[in-house]
Amino acid sequence: MQLNQDTNILIVGLGVIGGGYAKALTAKGYRVYCITKEQKDIDYALAHGIIHEGSTRVDPAVVGKADLVILALYPHIVLEWLQSHQQHLKPGALVTDVTGVKGRLVDEVQAMLRPDVEFISAHPMAGRESSGVEYSDDSVFRGANYIVTPTGRNTPGAIALCRQLGQVLGFARISELSPRKHDEMIAFLSQLTHCIAVVLMNCNTSPHLEAYTGDSFRDLTRIARINDEMWSELFLWNREELLRQIDAFCGTFAEFRTLLAEGDRAGLREMMRYSSFRRALFDKPGADT
Amino acid sequence: MQLNQDTNILIVGLGVIGGGYAKALTAKGYRVYCITKEQKDIDYALAHGIIHEGSTRVDPAVVGKADLVILALYPHIVLEWLQSHQQHLKPGALVTDVTGVKGRLVDEVQAMLRPDVEFISAHPMAGRESSGVEYSDDSVFRGANYIVTPTGRNTPGAIALCRQLGQVLGFARISELSPRKHDEMIAFLSQLTHCIAVVLMNCNTSPHLEAYTGDSFRDLTRIARINDEMWSELFLWNREELLRQIDAFCGTFAEFRTLLAEGDRAGLREMMRYSSFRRALFDKPGADT
């Protein structure tokens, strides 16, 4: 299967990511149908030309027509939705998702799914602090990473189509990782950073700090404005790996603290030089940060 | 004393901050003389119209003409420079700085300075990851905070002039803090965030992480590219306060870890809601982050 103008695409969940997918796909001439909870989100998306049709009802005829189903839902709702509606899926349909945790989710979905449909999981590494379709913006995909997480149950055709979807959406770099390796990476790169931002905003309650701050603090805490419902679910679904990353971070922090307490300037400078070297690897191609 | 077009301004140290000051002042029609270590920096600044005159030599006649001396130097060099050259200062001259630590520095400078000149300390909360005059950019001052840190030895006139300097440079918000309170604030808002970024880049050495990262990690580690000479000096000059802030941060992190390990979703969500509330206070006026 190849993604083309005849592909019937169904997006379930018109939040900030589902909305961004819809925007990008519709703008490129694909036909996008959408199912979501709130009528106001359908109305908004129709009024802004983000989708072709939409409904708050799970219409078996609509589900049964879709060649590609994109579940832009919280992990537990991905499972619930498939449990309730997988009998309506078109034979041969491909199902993908946008979820930020993979291991347990991919295992459970692939174990329960009908054998004549295929689930290929992917993680678009581009989010926003605000939620809701009205904040969706497909420009955040440009320059961003897209990770496909296939398992032994996936076919080369499904992996290829999922990669093609990442390209059509405008992602700059498309990679493949096993679901376990993905969860390990994401625990460090995304979940730990969100924990740090939340802890930073909880550990000092002095008033009026904003009058004295610089941009580095603002940058570090941008993500402290956090969707607590979603992130608490993602953290708990990846609890063991996230605990390991927290422990590694806090262990290194203890080493840093010892250098500082002992006045070991050479040791501090060595850690700073290593961090400068490592950070350079993360520059976006063509950008200066 | 009022800053005006007749004020003779001397900037010592043409790095990224000294250069930014020179650029802003020259653009507003002030006459800026500069003393710095490297002839190439003088040449660059003259070629780009950033200063009126400059020299690598400390000419007593030039120092003796300056009404306002801005020391854009590392803390220990502020002390050394004044020890070596304060005898040339003009009676009634005002000396200020741009240093990121205050308590001990302000004490030592005010204790050793000639009684007929005055030292009023200030901290421009705007930096860059790159050092050197060629990276200086006075646009980083717009929207940024400027903190004046007077002591009982300062006169109202000097405080007013220092505040006026912040306005002329284009800072959005000008505040006053005691040197001790400044160091406490800055340990949290600036030094701790730099420690976190450095530790983050030291605690996971997996290769190829950059292919899987999102923007939150990039934002948190932008400052991990760090001038190790300067920051190690700033950390050590503010060691006790920074250790306190590190301990508060790590203590709160331990609480967060316990909630996660125990699967206490309500507790995690409470910390996230508090961080979202606190972070909103730090939005720049008129910006969405």
Give a short overview.
The structure is a homodimer of 289-residue chains. Chain A is α/β, with parallel strands linked by helices and 289 residues long.
Secondary structure blueprint with pairings:
2 copies of one chain form a homodimer.
Chain A: E1 8-12, H1 16-27, E2 31-35, H2 39-47, E3 53-55, H3 60-65, E4 68-71, H4 75-85, E5 94-97, H5 103-112, E6 118-119, E7 122-125, E8 145-148, H6 156-169, E9 173-176, H7 179-202, H8 215-221, H9 228-237, H10 239-261, H11 265-280
Parallel strand pairs in A: 1-2, 1-4, 2-3, 4-5, 5-6, 8-9
Antiparallel strand pairs in A: 7-8
Describe this structure in words.
The structure is a homodimer of 289-residue chains. Chain A starts with 7 loop residues before the first strand and ends in a 9-residue tail after the last helix. Chain A has 2 domains: 8-177, NAD(P)-binding Rossmann-like Domain (Rossmann fold, 3-Layer(aba) Sandwich), CATH 3.40.50.720; 182-280, 6-phosphogluconate dehydrogenase C-terminal fold, CATH 1.10.3660.10. In chain A, strand 5 (94-97), helix 5 (103-112) and strand 6 form a beta-alpha-beta unit. In chain A, the strands form 2 sheets. A 6-stranded parallel sheet of chain A has the order 3-2-1-4-5-6. In chain A, strands 7-8-9 form a 3-stranded mixed sheet, with helices on one face. Chain A is of the alpha/beta class and 289 residues long. Chain A is built from 11 helices and 9 strands. The longest helix of chain A has 24 residues, at 179-202. Chain A is globular, with a radius of gyration of 21 Å. At the A-B interface, helix 7, helix 8, helix 9, helix 10 and helix 11 of A face helix 7, helix 8, helix 9, helix 10 and helix 11 of B.
